[in-house]
Amino acid sequence: MPSGYLNIDHSAGTPLINQIHDRLRERIENGELAHNSRLPSMRKLSEDTGVSIGIIRQAIGQLTH
Q: How many angstroms separate the CA atoms of 54 and 65, rounded?
């Protein structure tokens, strides 16, 4: 997964959890992440975005609902 994969803006007014959720959802909907494929690990997403694993976990939790 390339750096900047999710293009998270830490200075934006949009909460990080929403940005992560929206970016992952976009990649699922446009086919970049295939149906039933594995997401990158929470640790990898956390490292690549500079966001805590807790925020990543919450964003992924929202996706599963």
A: 17
Scanning the chain, the segments in alpha helix (DSSP H) are 16-29, 42-49, 53-64
How far apart are alpha carbons 65 and 60 in whole angstroms? Answer: 9
Read off the pLDDT of residues 11-48 as tens digits, 9 standing for 90 and up. 999 999 999 999 999 998 898 888 788 888 999 999 99
Q: Which residue has the tokens 């959890």?
A: 17
Whether 19 and 10 have beta carbons less than 8 Å apart is answered as no
Closest-CA residue to 63 (of 14, 31, 28): 28
CA distance 15 to 33: 23
Q: Tell me which residue of 40, 57, 53 sits closest to 5, measured CA to CA.
A: 40
